[in-house]
Design brief:
The protein is α+β, with helices and mostly antiparallel strands. The protein contains 30 helices and 62 strands. Among the domains are: about 290 residues, Methylamine Dehydrogenase, Chain H (7 Propeller); about 100 residues; about 70 residues, Thrombin, subunit H; about 100 residues, YVTN repeat-like/Quinoprotein amine dehydrogenase (Methylamine Dehydrogenase, Chain H), CATH 2.130.10; about 70 residues, Alpha Horseshoe (Serine Threonine Protein Phosphatase 5, Tetratricopeptide repeat); about 220 residues, no CATH class. Strand 24 and strand 25 form a beta hairpin.
């Protein structure tokens, strides 16, 4: 027996399987009805409206309903969709024992201790028939699965069969009814002339010596089985006219509680109070199997209507089980599958022709009739099979297959022996493992032992392990054993392995356990492992090296690197044997070959991605519809945004991916389509990082960012456009912008005119004088009515002209960063012909058009020629000028810039520390802003520089040459450029052992200023850091929380000391200062610091309260110190002070500190934030603040903005 699920509860009295879903209803003696998912092992729902034990439950076959009956005399009909009772049927006068739905009519049958059986119509909620005749409790009543019959069992020692055909006629639709039927229908409550009602007793079966507890019909045959308190299970047969006892199954040694027929085999199952489940041969009436529980009596048994599952209710819950394995024994050889059918016939299936052969051999005589063979091993050289069965403590049989499959013939020459596992290891040798004596025998084809091997202790199974080898399976390990050398080659710690599936090339194997798949190579080295929450049933290998495996409800795939996904869903369990193209060959539980159609596109694409077969990826993209968020997120996670770009249609997602992979072409296209200011801003930042100033110019134009445009034209040397910017500034009436442009242009005269315009004559005079414009200076003086003698000038230096661009870089872009074209994109562009996409070549557009005029101050119409100069944004020719031949683009990608290892660091990692190491401080700051809301980066400047310097070493080169630069990695053995990462100085261990430890020592030594500085430094070191595992990341975050609490505690105490000048006697201060200092002393005890330091805080607060006659507070602190303190001397002192305080526990000054309230301390105001009160917190260290401080910089870490949105600090790649 294979137990599939067990629940723990009070006594189970009623059980029902859902016909389609993996659900089971269990009604309990405690009045609860439980709904379980036996596949997942989870409790879905509980229904609790009955008063007293619930003895019967049943699911409706098609509707979302179930019915229950209990000791409260009530029958309730429930909807499991709405999770409530729909209505209650009242009428029984005693306990309701069983309830069942009719298979097609809207009827419910119930049996009760009131000695009646009642049939109810659940649609109109009425009682339609009461069947009387039993003279003791009726324990069970069921409808016949097909005919108009009811069978009932009673403690009056009889079983009755009732004919209810009259009831059907009376309550069916009145279409083609005879006159007699219509008369009967009109007199529903009257008996006929013989006194019969609608339900008449057809047979009374007597044979039990005591009460009968259960009775059931056979699903197809005219048979009845009953179980009684006389410990017997009886089989009855009936015909149209009579019924008789066939035989009795004896074996239970206590009351037999229930019995039923196996839905698909000639078996009877019964349960009893002797704590056993027994299985009987229907034909021979002999016991086949029995299973005993240690302590629990069984009360009820139920069979699943469709699949081979049973459930039995006992004193402590319910168990769901099956009688035998349903996995068909099979073996694969080239294009043929050999398998054993349910009838125990050996057959073959040809994959090339998709043809099933007739039966080749009959194995009826092998083992027990009810126990199917476990394994099949095929020897192609001898065309023989080796079959094992668990019957008789494990046996094997070696037999030859006939050349022609002409029907199920008995094997001619067979060799048999004892063994739990048997497998061919060579053309003329096979191995047999016997678990009882822990021995492996190597035998020849005559069944003679040639060699004996002692396997490792605890071995439970043996499978083929490659040429000349065996894989030996133990509960916690798998061993690779060489038969020839008689030695163990390798071992792997993996638990619960049940099956092993080898790839067709013999280089890899999948070890399948209940919930795990472990992929190993032929040397038993683990390659990857994955976990499933639902049971794993089988697996097979694709020719490309992808593992396909099946669970109870899915076919999934797994790549060698552990990536996995769903291929298709399953309605029924199947066992995979072969995959070829889009066809997945499998055997179902009935051992019938099936071919499922699958779509291998997703896993083939991922495989091509892992192996970097770009041509294949390109072909998949062009020929299939591989879309969805899962594939996009997978590509992003693996660092291939440029490939994800090929799948996405949504403009926003396309823009994000294009920015991530540096594809400015697509980014511009999407930004133009969406036209949002934030997108133009992001595009401008990215284009600037690439050095693509043409796109930068366009984004500044879109954002109307005139100041940045002017500076861009200055840096690129575009004098003509700088002149136009000056004209535009004049039209806009923007004096500041005009002045700025005149400085960029070196136009002194314009500056003087502007200063005169705004009545800044002194500045205009100084400007003219310093630039040697004497006439202009004199004119200004005259206009002011002054002479040179009347003014006193400071010492004037020489005028400096603005620097001119050495090379006209505005004529072409200067790439400083690779534009994201990898091998895949090159392959993609090559497919489109010879045209090469220039991601940096953007023609200038008339982007603002007439909007520039509208932005002015109305003077443009009178501007004359200047109006034309500033008209729109058409600044130059439509085509981009060619770069001059003597212009050398030293920063181009070809020159090697942007492809250094430092650039790889920034690309490979989402950690701020790695970006700082790469020298990309701006992206590091952006990351910290997103992760922890960082806004004040001044405290991190030293950390950024420390990391940057620590990741580089310099080797002096020859004289006149720059030193050679070497990069320092933390991934020393990594060869994949996508995984190369820098060494980050001051790791977690060093921060814990230096800064955190120093801070704690300072707390102990009462050097709070030093301690606070140490903890703040620790916070800043941990904010920009990297760790190697998730466990270390959790440890680092815990250290951040702890350091923050110490900073808060020390800051509170330092604030108190500042307030009182370090004095403990506050009698000389005003009342407000006294109150505040006493409160701060109390708040010092609130932060969550280590117990020994909490003891110091409590001791300090207690002494401070004592000196200032705060006896109520003193008592609180003394109690806390006695309860939580770690210092015996302090505790003794607390006990003495407590004795004094208890005499008069009142405070001289009332303070805001409630020892019984839940609150935290605001790290800015050092006042309480009570539970339930609105508050904000630092996204990095978690310290709490009142909401008025939201948006300000955290006082503890000094970096993050309080209440800023954040994704959380990331410390692992």
């Amino acid at each position: 027996m294979l137990t599939k699920f067990e629940s723990k509860s009070s006594r189970a009295k009623g059980i029902a399987f859902h016909p389609k879903r993996p659900w089971i209803l269990v009604s309990l003696h405690s009045s609860t009805i439980q709904l379980w998912d036996y596949r997942m092992g989870t409790l879905i729902d509980r229904f609790e409206e009955h008063d007293g034990p619930v003895r019967g439950v049943d699911f409706h076959k098609t509707q979302p309903l179930f019915v229950s009956g209990g000791d409260d005399y009530k029958i309730k009909v429930w909807s499991y969709q709405t999770r409530r009772c729909l209505f209650t049927l009242n009428g029984h006068l005693d306990y309701v024992r069983t309830v069942f739905f009719h298979h097609e009519l809207p009827w419910i049958i119930s049996s009760s201790d009131d000695q009646t059986i009642r049939i109810w119509n659940w649609q109109n909620r009425s009682l339609i028939c009461t069947m009387t005749g039993h003279n003791h409790y009726t324990m069970c009543a069921q409808f016949h699965p097909k005919d108009d019959l009811v069978v009932s069992a009673s403690l009056d020692q009889s079983v009755r069969v009732w004919d209810i055909s009259g009831l059907r006629k009376k309550h069916s639709a009145p279409t083609s009814m005879s006159f007699e039927d219509q008369v009967a229908r009109s007199n529903q409550q009257q008996a006929d002339m013989f006194g019969n009602t609608d339900a008449v007793v057809k047979f009374v079966l007597e044979g039990h010596d005591r009460g009968v507890n259960w009775v059931a019909f056979h699903p197809t045959l005219p048979l009845i089985v009953s179980a009684g308190d006389d410990r017997l299970v009886k089989l009855w047969r009936m015909s149209e006219t009579k019924a008789w006892e066939v035989d009795t199954c004896r074996g239970h040694f206590q009351n037999a509680s229930a019995a039923l027929f196996h839905p698909h085999q000639d078996l009877i199952l019964s349960v009893g109070e002797d704590k056993t489940i027994r299985v009987w041969d229907l034909n021979r009436r002999t016991s086949v199997q029995s299973f005993k529980r240690e302590n629990d009596r069984f009360w009820v048994i139920a069979a699943h209507p469709e699949i081979n599952l049973f459930a039995a209710g006992h004193d402590n819950g319910v168990m769901v089980f099956k009688l035998e394995r349903e996995r068909p024994a099979s073996a694969l050889y080239q294009n043929n599958l050999f398998y054993i059918t349910k009838e125990k016939h050996v057959r073959s299936y040809d994959f090339t022709k998709n043809v099933e052969s007739p039966s080749m051999l009959s194995l009826k005589k092998l083992g027990n009739a009810w126990v199917p063979p476990r394994t099949l091993s095929y020897n192609p050289a001898e065309r023989s099979v080796l079959v094992t069965t668990p019957a008789d403590s494990g046996t094997y049989e070696l037999m030859s297959l006939p050349r022609d499959a002409s029907g199920a013939v008995e094997p001619t020459s067979t060799h048999r022996g004892n063994g739990n596992s048997a497998v061919f290891v060579a053309r003329n040798r096979f191995a047999v493992f016997n678990s009882q004596n822990q021995q492996i025998d190597i035998k020849d084809l005559q069944n003679s032992t040639t060699k004996t091997i002692k396997p490792p202790a605890g071995t439970t199974d043996m499978v083929f392990g490659g040429t000349g080898c065996l894989l030996l399976i133990a509960p916690t390990h798998v061993y690779l054993y060489d038969i020839q050398q008689k030695k163990q080659l390798a071992e792997l710690a993996v638990s619960g392995v049940k099956y092993v599936v080898w790839s067709s090339d013999g280089l890899h194997a999948a070890l399948l356990s209940k919930h795990n798949v472990t992929i190993v190579d032929k040397s038993l080295k683990q390659i990857s492992t994955l976990h499933e929450t639902i049971r794993i049933k089988s697996a097979t290998w694709d020719d490309a090296g992808v593992l396909l495996y099946s669970t109870l409800n899915h076919v999934k795939y797994a790549l060698m690197n552990g990536d996995n996904g769903i291929v298709r869903t399953l309605e029924h369990v199947v066992y995979l044997v072969r995959v070829k193209g889009r066809s997945l060959y499998c055997l179902d539980r009935a051992a019938k070959p099936k071919v499922l159609t699958i779509d291998p596109t997703e896993y083939r694409f991922k495989l091509a991605l892992v192996k970097r077969h770009y041509d294949e990826m390109l072909n998949i993209i062009k020929t299939s519809s591989l879309v969805g968020q899962s594939i996009i997120s997978y590509l992003q996670k693996k660092g291939y945004p440029e490939i994800a770009l090929q799948f996405v249609q949504d403009p926003t997602t396309r823009f994000d991916l294009a920015i991530e992979c540096g594809n400015l072409d697509v980014a511009v296209e999407m930004a133009q389509q969406l036209d949002r200011p934030k997108l133009w801003q992001r595009l401008g930042v990215e284009a600037l990082a690439h050095g693509n100033h043409k796109i930068v110019e366009m984004t500044y134009q879109k954002q109307r960012n005139f100041d940045k445009l002017s500076f861009l034209y200055l840096t690129t040397g575009d004098q003509e456009k700088l002149n136009r910017m000056a004209k535009i500034a004049e039209h806009r009436g923007d004096i500041t912008s005009q002045f700025q442009n005149s400085i960029y242009l070196g136009d002194v005269q314009s500056r003087i005119e502007m200063l005169k315009e705004v009545d800044q004559y002194p500045l205009a005079y100084v400007t003219a004088k310093s630039h040697g414009l004497e006439d202009e200076a004199q004119a200004i003086l005259e206009a002011s009515g002054l002479s040179e003698e009347e003014i006193k000038l400071p010492t004037l230096g020489k005028p400096i002209a603005p620097p001119k661009a050495v090379t006209p870089t505005f004529q072409g872009n200067w790439p400083t960063k690779p534009t994201g074209t990898n091998a895949f994109e090159k392959a993609l562009t090559a497919e489109d012909g010879d045209a090469v996409v220039d991601t940096n070549g953007y023609g200038e557009e008339d982007l603002l058009g007439e909007d520039a005029a509208a932005a002015g101050n109305g003077t443009m119409d009178e501007a004359g020629d200047d109006d034309d100069a500033a008209e729109g944004w058409d600044m130059g020719d439509e085509s981009i000028p060619e770069v001059e031949e003597d212009f050398v683009n030293v920063e181009s990608a070809e020159a090697g810039a942007g492809s250094s290892e430092a650039d790889l660091w920034a690309r490979n990692s989402p950690l701020a520390a790695d970006h700082a190491a790469a020298g990309s401080f701006d992206t590091a700051m952006n990351l910290l802003n997103r992760q922890v809301g960082a806004v004040n980066f001044k405290p991190l400047e030293a950390r950024f520089l420390e990391i940057f310097q620590a990741t580089r070493t310099y080797l002096p080169a020859n004289s006149g040459l720059p030193p050679l630069l070497n990069y320092v990695r933390r991934t020393l053995n990594e060869t994949d450029s996508r995984k190369v990462l820098p060494l980050i100085p001051r790791d977690l261990e060093s921060v814990l052992s230096i800064e955190i430890a120093n801070g704690k020592n300072a707390m102990k030594a009462n050097k709070l200023e030093d301690g606070r500085a140490s903890f703040k430094k620790a916070l800043q070191l941990l904010m920009v850091n990297a760790v190697s595992s998730q466990g270390q990341a959790q440890e680092a975050l815990a250290a951040v929380q702890q350091a923050a609490q110490y900073v808060l505690a020390m800051s509170i105490e330092l604030e108190r000391r500042t307030l009182t000048g370090g004095s403990t006697d506050i009698s000389s201060f005003d009342d407000a200062t006294k109150k505040r200092s006493l409160e701060l002393s109390a708040y010092f005890t609130v932060p969550e610091i280590e117990p020994q330091h909490q003891t110091l805080a409590l001791f300090s607060a207690m002494n401070f309260a004592n000196k200032n006659k705060q006896l109520g507070s003193l008592l609180n602190f003394a109690n806390a110190l006695i309860e939580r303190g770690t210092n015996a001397k302090f505790k003794e002192s607390a006990r003495k002070l407590k004795a004094v305080a208890e005499r008069s526990p009142t405070d001289a000054i009332e303070i805001e500190y409630d020892t019984y309230a839940e609150f935290e301390i605001c790290a800015a105001s050092y006042t309480p934030i009570y539970a339930g009160e609105a508050s904000s917190s630092c996204p990095f260290d978690g310290t709490k603040y009142h909401t008025k401080y939201k948006g300000t910089v955290c006082k503890v870490c000094e970096v993050s903005a309080i209440g800023a949105p954040s994704s959380g600090l990331r410390l692992t790649v």
